[in-house]
Amino acid sequence: MDTSIVATLPPNTLGLNAFIFMALAWTFVLGLMLWSFRKLMSTPENEKLPPPGSIP
Amino acid sequence: MAEVAAPREQWGSRIGLILAMAGNAVGLGNFLRFPRQAVDNGGGTFMIPYFIAFLLVGIPLMWIEWGVGRYGGVRGQGSTPGMFDSLWKHPVAKYLGVLGLFMPVIVLIYYCYIESWTLAWTFFSATGQTQGLDQAGMAAFFKSYVDLENASVHGFWLPFGFFFATVIVNFWVVSKGLTAGIEKLAKIGMPILFLFATILVIRVLTLDPVTITHDGITTTQGPLDGLRFMYTPDWAALGNPKVWLAATGQIFFTLSVGMGSLSAYASYLTKKDDLTLSGIATCATNETAEVVLGGSLAIPAVVTFFGVAGAVAVAKGGSFDLGFISMPLVFNNLPGGPLVAGAAGVMWFGLLFFAGITSSVSMATPALAFVEENFGWTRKRTAWTLAAIVILLGLLHIVYNTRGFLDEWDYWAGTFGLVILALVETIIFVWIFGPENAWNELHEGAAWPIPRFYKTIITYVTPAFLLVMMIWWTVQEAIPTLMMNGVPAENVPVKWASRAVMLAILFFQLWLIKVAWARKAARRVA
Asked: Which of A1, B83, B104, B117 is the most exposed place for a label (fewest CB within 10 A)?
C-alpha cells in the first residue's frame, strides 16, 4: 500500500487518476444494472400457476 | 418417513427471484472484504483484473449455476447430488454432488455465528453501549465478545444468546418456504440494505475534512482522500499474478458461486423462466452493492478520522477490525452526538445483518431440498432439525473461535472448496453434458441471447481460470494450511478436532446420498 499518494495533493481531493478509475467502475456496474433491469422489465413475465393445493 | 416429497415450489415473481439471488450474493464481504482487497492490491488498477474476472469467470459461473440448478429442478432435484446425477449418468456423479451439500452446511454454521455479531452490534449501537469508547476500549469491547477466554466486558453467555437468536430467525424464515419465507425476506431486506447503505455513503462522502495527528504528524484529510487512497492506480500491480488471483478470488466470493446455493435457488425455476438476463441482473446488483456502496463506506470513513496511516493499520488488522472496531469509532466522531452515532451504528450493522441473513438462508436451502426430496420430510421438520445441528456445532465455534476452529472451516469449505465445486460443476455441465446442450439449456426461456463468443469463454476460458486458481491456491495456501505451518502448538489439537468434525459431516452426507439412491432404486423395483 502506497501511503504517500494522499499526502501529495491538497486535503479532500480525489485526483484525476483516481477519479477516472472510480468513474469507470461506477459507470460499468450501474450501467449494467440499469440495462439488465430495464430489459427485464420490458420482457413479459411468464404466467405462474398458483401453488399446488391453493385452489379449493 | 413418507415416501413422496411435496410438489416443488416456484418463485412468486421475477423481481423476488432476482432480489433473493442478489441477497444470496450480497454478503458481509461486499462491505468488509472488497475495500481491503482493493487497497491491498493496487487500488484503481485492481479494478482491471477484477472486472476481467467478473466477465470471464463471474458471469459465466453465475449462468452455469443457474443452468445446473434449473436442469436439476425440473427433474425434481434441488441439490447438487441429484443435479449432477441428472446431467451425468455415472455412479460417481451423485457423490461429487456432496460438495454442494457439504460446503453450504459448513459455511452456514460459522456464518450464522459471524452474522450474530452484526445482530449484537445493532443492539449495542441502539442502546449506546459502544459510545464513549476510545480505540483501546472498542478493541477490548470486540475481543471480549469473540474470545470467551477474555469475556470480561460482556460476560460468558451473551454471544450464545445472540447466536441462538440469529439461528432461530434464519430457520423461521426458511421454514416458511420459498415464497412466504426466503422471497419475502429478500423483498424486505434488500431494499432496507440498499437504503441504509445509500444513507451512510451520502453521510460519509459529505463529511468535512478532519485534522488529526498520527505518530507526531498532523494531517488534514477528508472522505475523498479515502477514495483517492483506494482508487489511485498502481500500474506495477498489473504485472503481479497475486493481484490477478486476488481479483478472481474476490469475484468468486462476492458472487457466492461454487457454493451450491445459487443452483439450489435456480432449481425452483421452470423451463419458461429466463436465466441469461436474470443472471446478469443478479451479478450487476451485487457489483453495485460492492463497488458503489461497499467501496465508498469503510475506507473513506476510516481515512477521514484516522488518516491513511491509521487506515493502513486498520486494514492490516483484518475485515472484522474494520467493521466492528473502526466503524463504531467513526460513528462516535460524527457530528450530531450520540443520537447520530447510534443511528449510524444501527444502519451499518443492520445492513450487515441483512446482507448476512439473505446469504445464510440460501446456504440452508440445498440441505433442506435434499432431505425433503429424498426422505420425504416436511419443510418445517427439516428446517428445525438443521437449526438444531447448526446450534450444536455453532457452539464449538463460539467456544474455540480464537483457537482457529472457525479458520479451518472457513479455509477448507469457505475458500478452497468453492473453487473445487465450481470446477466440478463446470466440467460436468459444459464438458460432460456437452457445450451445445449446456448452451441450449441456458437459452431455454431466455429473455436475451448470450453473445456467441461467450460459448468459447464458458467452454475453455472459465475452466482454465478455475484450474489455474486451484493449482495456485493448492501450492500457495492449501499445502501450508494442511501442514499447519505457523500454527501455535496449543491450537493444533483444536484444529485437528475442527477437521475431524468437518470430515464426520462429509462422510455422514455421503452416507445419506448412498441411502437416498438405494431408496430410489428400491422404489423403482417396487
From this structure: A1
